C-alpha cells in the first residue's frame, strides 16, 4: 500500500512539473474599455460640443446668416438705445415704420415711404440712411412746433 501512495505521489509531482511549461512572459492584453480611453472619448465629445456652441454663438453674434424675410414684414435696421430698449426700422409693403421697442411694449415713432421706391429702375441720389435721417428730423421739428 505504501508503494501505491508513492506511485501516486510520484505521478502527481511529475504532472505539476509538466503543467508549468507555459509561456512565463505572457502578459494579458489591456481591456478595451479603460479609464484612459473613456476620458479621451469624453474629452473629444466635449471639444466637439464646444466647437458647435462657439460656432453658433459667432454666427448669431456677427449676423453672418441673414434672417429669412418671410411675408411682408422685414426688419431693415435695429439699434440699441439702452440696455433693453431698441429702435427698429421695419418695412411693410412700401412703407417704413420706425418703432421704439422696450420690454412689454412697442411704440410707433415715425412712418415714411420706402426710400428709392418712387422709381423702381433708378438709383436714389442719397443714401437711404441719410434720407431717413433728414425725414426723421423734419418730422420731429413738425411735432415740436
Architecture overview:
This protein is an alpha+beta fold and 145 residues long. The protein has a four-stranded antiparallel sheet, with helices on one face. The protein starts with a helix and ends with a helix. The model has no long low-confidence stretch (mean pLDDT 79). The chain is built from three helices and four strands. Helix content is 43%, strand content 22%. The longest helix has 27 residues, at 35-61. The chain folds into two domains: 2-61, no CATH class; 73-144, no CATH class.
| Radius of gyration, taken over Cα atoms and rounded to an integer in Å | 41 Å
Coarse shape: rod-shaped
Number of helices: 3
Domain unit count: 2
> What is the structural class?
alpha+beta
What string gives the helices and strands in order? HHEEEEH
- Strand percent estimate: 15-25%
Describe the sheet with the most strands. Answer: 4 strands, antiparallel
Summarize the structure.
The protein is an alpha+beta fold. It has helices spanning 2-19, 35-61, 128-144; strands spanning 73-80, 86-92, 95-102, 105-113. The protein has two domains: 2-61, no CATH class; 73-144, no CATH class.
